[in-house]
Amino acid sequence: MDDLHEPHPHSLARRHRGWKRSHGKVRYRQRRTSRLLRLRVDLQPCKFTRQSGFGRLQLSRLVWISQLLWRIVVRDQHLQIIEALGVAKEFDASAEAERRTAFLADYMQASSCGALVLGISGGVDSLTAGLLAQTAVNRLRGRGHKAEFIAVRLPYGTQADEADAQRGLASIGPDRVVTIDIKPAADAMMAEVCGDAGDLFETVRLDFHLGNIKARQRMIAQYALAGAVRGLVIGTDHAAEALMGFFTKFGDGAADVLPLSGLTKRRVRALAEYLGAPRDLVFKVPTADLESDAPLRPDEDVYGVTYDDIDDFLEGKPIGEPAFQRILATHVATAHKRALPLSPQ
Predict the structure, then answer these.
(1) Which of 78, 261, 294, 321, CA to CA, is 20 to 30 A from 71?
(2) Per the residue annotation, which of 125, 237, 289, 312 is the catalytic one?
(3) Residues 285 and 240: beta-carbon distance below 8 Å
C-alpha cells in the first residue's frame, strides 16, 4: 500500500496543481484517481481569505475545501468501479436473457467445446446460470452441433438445503446430472495440511480455511469433468459478489465463462424470474454455505450491508453513508481477488 501523502493545508489550497484561483474564487480541476481510501487531508486551523463581489469572507479552516475534494474523489472512484464491473445503466430481462444465451452458444461453437459444466448449489445464481446454459445447449443442438449441459451437485456430506438444489435441477432440466461428495477429499486435505503444519493453524479459525478448501475442491471436480468431455466450466460470479470480493480465490472464482457478469443481485433475480425459475428459490436468502460451524449463514451477515445497498451502489443510486463506506473499504481490501497474479516489471 502506498504511503499517505499529507500536504500542508496552505500548499493544498494555493499551490496544489489541481487547484487554481480565478476571479477571487477557488475552483477544482477534477483529477482522476483510484487512491480513494489512501487520500487523507489533514487540515490544521488556519485562515484563508476569499475575495468576492459580496465582500471579504474569513474562514477559520479549509473544511469546505476538504469536503469538496473528498466528494469529487469519491464520486470519481464510484463511477470507475461501476464501469470496471460492467454494470449497465438500464436492464431488460428479455434482452439480457437473449444476449447471455447467445454468448454461451456462440462461444461454445467458436471454441469447439462440446459441453458446459456447472455446479448447482440450490441458490439463485447457479439456478439462473443453469437455465441459461441449458437454453444455449438446446440452441446449439438446433443448429446441428453436438452439445450437452452437465449439472454437478457437489455437497459436503449432507447439504442442509438439498431439497432446494433438487428443485433447482428440476427447473433447469439439465441433460445430465452428476453428484460428487467433496467431504472425503476436503477433510483429507485439511487433515494432511494440519498434520504436518498444525502449528501454523493454532491461532486461526480452521472452519474458515476448510471452507476455502471446500470451494477449491468443488472447482477441482468441475474441471476434472470438463476435461473429460472437452467442456467449459461456468462460473456464477456477478457484479455484486465481484464488488465485495465474495468468492474464494481459485475456487468458485475460477471458471471459463461468466454468464452473469455485470449483473446486480436484483437483476440476477429478475433474469431468473423471466427464465421461469420458482419464485421461492429466486428470493431465497443467499448463502455461500461454506462454514460447517455456521451452516446457511446469510451472505449479508458476512458483508455487514444488504444486497439492496450493494445493488443501489452499483446502479448509481443513493445509499446511506455507513453502507457506502463499508462497501468501498471492502472493495479495496479484496482488490487482490480481482487482479491477475503479479509479476516483475
Answers:
(1) 261
(2) 125
(3) no
Q: What is the mean pLDDT of residues 307-327?
A: 96
184 and 76 assigned to the same domain = no
| CATH number of the CATH domain containing 122 | 3.40.50.620
Q: Do 141 and 215 share a structural domain?
A: yes
Q: What is the pLDDT of residues 16-51, one digit of tens each?
A: 333 333 333 333 333 443 444 443 334 344 444 444
Whole-number average pLDDT of the chain = 85
Closest listed residue to residue 128, CA positions, set 253, 243, 265: 265
Check whether residue 105 and residue 127 sit in a common domain: yes
Is residue 336 marked as binding?
yes
End position of a domain, from candidates 62, 84, 106: 84
Of the CA atoms within 13 Å of residue 107, those in its CB half-sphere come to 18
Backbone angles phi, psi at 177, to 5 degrees: -120, 130
Residue 98 is part of which domain span?
A: 93-338
- 121 a known binding residue? yes
Task: Tell me if 150 is assigned to a ligand binding site.
Answer: no
**How many beta carbons lie within 10 A of that of residue 64, not counting itself?**
12
- Are 24 and 154 found together in one domain? no
The answer, yes or no, to whether residue 115 has pLDDT greater than 70, is: yes
Digit-coded pLDDT (tens) for 100-112: 999 999 999 999 9
pLDDT at res. 263: 99
Q: How many domains does the chain have?
A: 2
Residue 236 annotated as binding site: yes
More confident residue, 290 or 231: 231
Q: Indicate if 3 belongs to the active site.
A: no
Residue 345 domain-assigned (yes or no): no
pTM: 0.80
- Among candidate residues 241, 252, 311, 312, the one labeled active-site is 241
289 labelled catalytic = no
Do 80 and 123 belong together in one domain? no
> Do 25 and 134 fall within a single domain?
no
By CB neighbour count within 10 A (0-12 exposed, 13-18 middle, 19+ buried), where does 284 fall?
middle
Domain membership of residue 3 (yes or no) is: no
The answer to whether the beta carbons of residues 222 and 179 sit under 8 Å apart is no
Nearest to 251 by CA among 177, 154, 108, 130: 154
Burial class (CB within 10 angstroms; exposed 0-12, middle 13-18, buried 19+) of 243: buried
Q: Is 251 annotated among the ligand-binding residues?
A: no
